Amino acid sequence: MMVNMPLLSNRTHRTRAFAIAVGAIVFASCQSLTYTAEGSMPPHARPVLLARPVYIADLIPPFEVDVDAFNANLFVGRIVFSGGVIRDATRGNIYRSARVALEGEASYRSSIGDLVYDAVARGLRWPNVRGIDGVVSEGRIVASFTRRSDLVQRDGRFLRVDSINVPYREYTVGLVPGSLSMLRELGGSSDGIFVVPFIEYGYSHTAGWFNDQESGCLAGVRLAVHILGIDLATGETVFSFAEDFRIVDDFSSVLSEFAIAELFGSIGDTLTDHIGAAIGKR
Fold first, then answer.
1. What is the mean pLDDT of the chain?
2. Structural domain of 42
3. Distant-in-sequence, close-in-space partners of 101: CB < 8 Å, separation ≥ 6
4. Quick one: which of 72, 83, 145, 222 is 20 to 30 A from 201 by CA?
5. Long-range contact list for 94-98, CB < 8 A, 24+ apart?
6. Would 6 be classed as within a structural domain?
7. What percent of the chain has pLDDT over 90?
8. Residue 55 falls within a domain, yes or no?
9. Please, which pLDDT band fits residue 168 given cuts at 50, 70 and 90?
10. How many domains does the chain have?
């Protein structure tokens, strides 16, 4: 079920969308947990410049070891749990899987980056969208880190059984002062809206226990994205968007590569629709 919610300037909207993906391989509950959108896009006469996605794990402070990004819920790749559940006395006696293998980061970054880029481009549906080959410098972006004060109370069925690590953190992104000249140079223009997608996390996982999740969860995929729209004439952020997705297969402990691709594809379609709804295009 899709919920289209036109955006009003300077107002935040949240919606929950639920869909069932039924096939020979997967029977999964697909949830867009929340999406938020603030601001508004300009009239169609102004061009839109779309950059390649930036990964929040690459921002300062950098996560040079994969497990650090995993613990911070910033990992992009495949997570393979094994060995059952243990209580980790070195980390406050939390529940977690005995072994965690982090795989395929390079291939996942490539495929998920393409998925997010294409979803944003389709969602904008702007007559003057132009892709930018260059990447926005990580040193010109600020990410803030905020610990969530509650557990996953958005969906009681997944309380303490979620496909993400505890403690939860909320991440926000923004450009540092002085970035405007860099964006103009990268976009080759001093007019228009420079759109930058950010990927917070994007992973598939087998059945197992994420950090401090007492009952574990079955196999699935997860993705969280942020989008900023910066006015190249003024340097102001005129549009921001964020959404996080969770799909957990109701019966499987391991997903095939085909099933993983199908589930991420359904996420991309939903992301496109929500971006379109947020900017009042549908």
1. 81
2. 17-278
3. 79, 80, 82
4. 83
5. 94/166, 94/211, 94/212, 95/209, 95/212, 95/213, 95/214, 96/209, 96/210, 96/211, 96/212, 96/213, 97/208, 97/209, 97/210, 97/216
6. no
7. 47
8. yes
9. confident
10. 1
